[in-house]
Write a structure and sequence with these properties.
Helix content is 74%, strand content 0%. It is mostly helical and 197 residues long. It has a domain at 137-187. Helix 4 packs across helix 6. It is rod-shaped, with a radius of gyration of 54 Å. The relative contact order is 0.05.
Amino acid sequence: MIGTRKLMAWWLATVVLAAGGCTVPQGPARNPAPAGDPGAAAAKRFQDTPLEGRTAVESAIELSEKYARLSDQSVTLRQENQRLANENEGLRQQITALDAKLKQTQKELSEANELLVEMLAELNQWKSNILGFRGEMRQAAQAQLEALLKVLEILGGEAEAGALGQRHTDTLNPDANDAPAVEGSARSQGSEPNGMQ
């Protein structure tokens, strides 16, 4: 590509030499253009004052070098533009994929929140059931002790209801703070588990 540009520069230089001649220096044309002549205004616009005193060949070579540099810059900018366009397209595709993932994650999160709310309701129900069951167990244990007391009385044993109640205070009333002290006094009454001597 650079070789083509150099070739174009030499070709342009030879065309300029052939048209202008090698020995004729280019003099500045300083004729003031009339205000109504658009061609003269355009010619003046393309006149380069630093090139005064140079030959047509030198000007052509310099202009061809400028053209080659600008062509290189143009190619570089086109490549950069294409790279940026490709990168933008990749980012758009990535945004589309991430947007779909975000929507899916939000959906899963809302479902998980609903599930947690349901689990919390079930946990509260379970706790109330367990606490109710614990109360039922206490009542059943107390009924068992009362039945055992009646059986002992029928068999002729002398069991004190208070001693048995104090002995099983932790079963009947687990929240009592003085249960261990009462147990110690209940054991001192006798060696039998029901308090008989």
